[in-house]
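Example protein was shown:

_____
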Amino acid sequence: MPVGSVTRLEVPCPPGPRRIVRRKRPQLVRCSPDAAARTMDAMDYDIHLFFAQPGSGRGRVLYRRFDGGLGLIAAAS
């Protein structure tokens, strides 16, 4: 598979609306991606960690990938 290509996975989804069974409202913390990664490691998080980029205050998501690496999601400017 060429580098940069995406494989589409077909995941069966039950028909009808899906119910949200849990909601979280974490406090948005202003920190760098490196500080967020250290927090994830210290707290042994295996879930997404929400934080704001210093300077802009825009929210970002740092998450642990299945391969053990970290992924960063940021809104387009």
User: Anything to note?
Assistant: The first helix runs from residue 33 to 43. The mean pLDDT is 78. The CA atoms of residues 1 and 61 lie 28 Å apart. The radius of gyration is 16 Å.
